[in-house]
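User: Hi! I have a protein structure encoded as tokens and I'd like to know what sequence might fold into it. I'm fairly new to this, so please keep things simple.
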């Protein structure tokens, strides 16, 4: 009995020593146990246009203003034929979550692009960049052209499951998730998941084939690209623009 007790005590001693050495090893190599989590960072500080410019252009110019911490687009009363004031980010992104708030005027229309490829070949960001619709669902006629034209939709491709937008003139929080590693994308509107979609492969290709973009050269072909805020000719505001790279 005594021999068995001593054997058990010896085994316990070895276990304690082993655990102590393991703890010391982890303390010496803290990165072995730490998991880094990406954080959101500002893309717009509410004070200046740093990080943003016109598509294929320079400073935002006369159409975009900064008011009360928001980027506000006022469509010019007169503009040359074909001139537009779409904003794009200076940075390019592939896998990310974009968080922002938007507010559209009554009967207004705008949009949020990603995967925008900037070149002389493409005159507008929507020629390459897929769009999350920004719309007054109650007042703009495009809302009657199909649910995949309504606010929060992956435009002309995937409709929102429900309408969780606030009325025109009120702020809406929108989060866009795009991850080419997992192949998944989604949209949340005011905290509610309303759209999911594939971002690559046969699933994505089939969405494009069934949309108005089926014959558009370059549409959705660029996993890495700029973000964009659309000039659709209506007053719109964006604020609290943040990005988290995945």
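Assistant: Happy to help. Inverse folding works backwards from shape to sequence: for each of the 246 positions I chose a residue that suits the local structure. Here it is:
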């Amino acid at each position: 009995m005594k021999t068995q007790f001593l054997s058990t005590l010896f085994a316990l001693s070895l276990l304690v020593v082993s655990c102590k050495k393991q703890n010391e090893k982890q303390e010496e190599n803290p990165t072995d146990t730490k998991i880094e989590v990406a954080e959101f960072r500002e893309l717009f500080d509410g004070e200046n246009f740093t990080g943003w410019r016109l598509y294929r252009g320079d400073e935002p110019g006369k159409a975009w203003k900064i008011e009360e911490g928001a980027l506000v687009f006022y469509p010019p009363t007169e503009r040359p034929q074909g001139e537009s004031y779409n904003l794009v980010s200076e940075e390019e992104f592939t896998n990310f979550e974009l968080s922002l708030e938007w507010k559209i005027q009554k009967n207004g229309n705008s949009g949020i692009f990603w995967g925008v490829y900037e070149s002389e070949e493409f005159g507008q960001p929507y020629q390459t960049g897929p769009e999350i619709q920004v719309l007054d669902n109650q007042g703009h006629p495009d809302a009657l052209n199909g649910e995949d034209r309504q606010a929060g939709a992956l435009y002309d491709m995937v409709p929102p499951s429900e309408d969780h937008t606030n009325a025109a003139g009120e702020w809406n929080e929108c989060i866009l998730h795009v991850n080419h590693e997992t192949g998944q994308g989604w949209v949340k509107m005011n905290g509610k998941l309303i759209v999911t979609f594939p971002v690559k492969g046969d699933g994505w290709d089939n969405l494009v084939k069934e949309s108005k973009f089926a014959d558009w050269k370059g549409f959705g072909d660029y996993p890495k690209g700029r973000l964009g805020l659309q000039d659709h000719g209506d007053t719109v505001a964006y604020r609290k623009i943040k990005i988290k790279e995945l």
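A useful reference point when you look it over: Confidence is low (pLDDT under 50) at residues 1-35. Feel free to ask if any position seems puzzling.
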